[in-house]
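Type II secretion system protein H structure dump, as promised
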Amino acid sequence: MRLPSRQHPLQFRGYTLMELVVATALLAVLIQLAIPSMSRLLSDWQRDHATRAITDHLALARSEAIRWSRRVVMCSSVDGLNCSPSSNREWKSGWLVFQDIDGNGQFSPTDKLIAVSQGANGIQSIRGNALLQRFVFMPTGMMASGMGTLEIVPNMGASQRIIVNRIGRIRLSTDPPVE
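structure tokens r here:
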């Protein structure tokens, strides 16, 4: 009679501690290499998103001025209800687009609100040039406020300028990144 043979215990399959440590170290190195480029990519995306939002609202303001044959104003706004004071050149917090029915350049209850923006996230600043407090489009589509420039400065990478000429046409200009 044969005696039952002793069965070998199942061999465990898996990773050794040393293999896990090496794999984790390689993963950490790859992450360290990828994060700076992803941060730059995110910053560029946020800058481009803010640029699109502003240019879309500028185009909307111009087209509404032509459409309704009325003055349309786009001004910076901190609270989304009133235009910022003329000393505030920062547009990061947001802006208003409205038909300026009473002609005073400020949003009031008699004016017709066209659009409100809550501003841009991830942007260091959006500043107008020294003379720019608002963009004012006449019924012809031309700017009553003259040529204006907004500079969008992201947290890292190149800044971008939005230039609106007297005729109301929009042009973009990108500066090289400042390291």
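DSSP finds one helix and eight strands in the chain.
lmk if u need the other ones
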